[in-house]
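Good day; I would like, with your permission, to put a structural problem before you. What I wish to show you is a protein chain and, alongside it, a tokenised description of its three-dimensional fold. Here, with my thanks, is the record as I have it:
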Amino acid sequence: MIGLNAIKFINSLKIKKNRELNQKAILEGYRLIYESINAGIKLDYLVVNENFQENLLNKDPFKNLTIKYCSKNNFNKISDTKNSQGIIAIVDIKKYLHQSLEKLDNNNLVVLDGIQDPGNLGTIIRTCAWFGINSIVLTSGTVDPFNLKCIRSAMGAHFNLDNIIQDSRLNIINYLKNNYKNIYVADMEGENLNKIKLVGNWALILGSEAHGISSEFKQFKKITIKKIGQIESLNVSVANGILINHLTSKLKRI
């Protein structure tokens, strides 16, 4: 059975500075863990409670993993969900810490500026993975991508990305200017997305729904999704999906 020190350690990973210090993060839920393993992430071990359906662990890719058992009461101390499925994984996130812009390959890129909602960030990460975006860049004001809610929202998509880089706005701007001709900012006052002529790879910058894009990024070309109805604005994760779909499709047609 799992000990009190292990319980204390797992709980410590709910805090960002401890995740960075130990280079570990928590995954909770069978499907999330399953998809993360298939994406190639390294698991240190699984923690399951006494009510978990152990036959599920006989399936690939769960075979040969280290499993630690836990009483229901102790599991509730480490669980971050109201109706837990009774399974948690501790994963190694060293690959994604201390990455630099110089590692990027100049492929299509999404830059997220000040996104504060972890659910939105997780959905954006999953959408990027769906469209084959291998790297995202976050400004220093953006929520931690390994926040537990963000990881649950992305459902393992973090680990389909090669790079999740956090840096200052100034460094990001300098990198974009030196490496991209097509740099777009999502903005309500921008040019209609359908009128964009695109040749070559692109970088897309999105700000938070509450505060919009930072002034430093407003030097780049603004684009918008044509509004038909009366709604004031789109959720940033929804806008991200529409924009990436259009830019990716447009690039392939040229």
